[in-house]
Design a protein that fits this description.
heterodimer, A: 221 residues, alpha/beta, Rossmann fold, Arc Repressor Mutant, subunit A, 2 domains, 10 strands, B: 529 residues, alpha+beta, Heat Shock Protein 90, disordered C terminus, phosphoprotein (chain B), ATP binding (chain B)
Chain lengths: 221, 529
Amino acid sequence: MKNKDLNILNKFNILYLEDDEDLLRHTTDVLEDFVNNIFAAKTSKEALEILKNKKVDVIISDILLENENGIDFLKLIKEQKGISIPTILTTAHTDTKYLLDAIKLKVENYIVKPINIKELLNSLHDILLPVVQEKEIRRNTNVIRTISAITDSKQVDIIKFIINNLDNNNLFSASYSDIMDHINISKPTLIKLFKELAEKNILVKVQHKTYRFNELALEEI
Amino acid sequence: MFKKILSYFDNFNFSLKTNILIFIISGGMLSIVVLSLMSTFSIKYDFDKLYEQRTKPLIKLESIKDTYTVNIQDTLYDIENKNITYMQAKEVINLALQLIQTNWGEYKKAKDIKQPAIYIGDFIKKFLVTQHQYYKNETLHKSISKNIDKKMININARLHNLEIANHNKDLVKEFAKLHLEINAINIYITSLINYDLTLALNEKRDTEKVFEVIITVSMFSIVLIFLFSVILSVLLINHFKRLHKLLEAKVESKTKELVELNNSLEKRVVQEVKNNRKKDIIMFQQARLASLGEMLNNIAHQWRQPLGSITMIIQSFQTKMQLGKLTDSFIDDKVKDALFLAENMSNTLDDFKNFFSPDKTKKEFSIKECIEHSFELSKYALEKAGIKTYLTMKKDIKINSYYNELSHVFLNLINNSKDALYTNINKNDRIIKVIIKQYKDDVVINFIDNGGGIPQDIAPKIFEPYYTTKYKSAGTGIGLYMSKQIIEKHMYGSIYQKNIIHKITKDKNYNCSLFIIKIPILKEENDEK
């Protein structure tokens, strides 16, 4: 928990399906501090109603519900309604049958009761982190695109070319002519750009035609 | 020799001996009777013969003699004395002569009569008497008879001559000759009579001899038969005694054996009873263990939920603390909840503990409560199998009995029904229904499930110990046996099973198994009596 930034959870809505009223209430009390909204449901009917009306990011469901089954509920929403929402199953049973069903349904996690809240929160974090990251990437891409729209697009293209051709050791190997083969740019402009990058210690020449891309230098800017 | 025969005889078996005895006695009797009858008849015959053959001819001879002396001689004297005329005398003499002729003829005839039949007496007589018949002298008899015949002719001739003499007046001379002749004939006749008398006397002696012989033989045979009978009887009695002793000894030994067997049997029975009791105790324990397992499952489930909640509450303190949101009201709230949950858990434990406590005291309780409690205890299993339960009754009935044991019985039935429903019936259609009624002094509990009933071949065995249709791990086979023991031995009731077709709910007919439990409602007062 220490390593994980649980603050990322506070933008999300969670649907919690549990037939034990006490447990439902207490878990909700804990989770509501971490997430944007928690929708508590006692039956699959209530849960479906919530799914219809609200935006839900993660479903947490008990397997054994009163007179019904959490796995059947998931099958219903995933296979019939085509709703694809990450799911965590909680259960007091470690029956292989349930476990296999859960795997077939591509459930994100399977938590054995009594619930360890850290485990649950970590699990939520793991599930939601890619979502957060995806959002960030999209945002950054948008930033770059916006910048390239208003400045010289050739320089942006060359930087893209350099970053895309980095090997695992962050080394870039190419001659000017190689670059010029790919991008339509005049040699003086290219030289000027490399010089500027070298001055800012971003692109350090290691040997002939080989440069190291220095990430740390970016932090200092 | 005698001993040899005796021992040979002794070796015969019992029935042969008896038969011989009977044969000897009856044969002896028969022979004695026949012998005595025959001797009686022969003696009678002898007497007849004596009269017919000896006495009668004697009379005849006597009368001939008389006729000669009285009629003829007297008439002759009368003529001599001239008392009567010759003509008168002639008439008398002719009459006398005729009489003599007939008598003589009859005498001879009697002599010629043959003996009419031959009796054994005669054989004996012949056998005994032959050498003694010296007195019988036929020649003598014949000569005398001949002389008499001759004299008769002479007399007749003389009497004819008398007529001539009468004419010649020569009567006196003739008379003298006639008297001489008559005297002579009388002497002859007398000698014949004597001869016949001797014969008669001899024959009488013979008869007496025969009689003596017969008597002796009879006596001898009687004595012999008596002796034989006595010997045989003694032998038989000895045989009886031996047999009796033998049988007595046999009976004694058999009795001894029986007594020993009886003793050992008694011991074995006591041992077996002990073993059985041990077995029963072990079985009861096994059954308790089996239901303990079930109950543990139930407890586990009933504990899971509150345990989950309490765990969550405890963790909530930590998270709230970390987020700085731990307020007094939150703590109060959660602690109250946690305590409530803990109390519930404790109650659950008490419930099960009570159920398994060896509480053997009778108390008054409501049947309804007991059944509901049993359903409650197995709630988890019932819910898991999706079984619906119904309980119908007009009024609650209270009985004075063993609460825990009855509850045990219901748990067994519920468990069996659950297994049957679980394997046979669609999940949405599983029903257990209990109907409670009062019938006279009994409370009747009908326990119905729609699990399809119990197969005919299994039904008679369900109450037997260690009979189970389940896999070894699933059933011990003593649930129903225990239930029957409890109901019959502890509660003096009865339990039996039937397959019925029943409308459990209103819409559909089901094949159902029905357990009928009857328990007498014993009031406190009755019980104390």
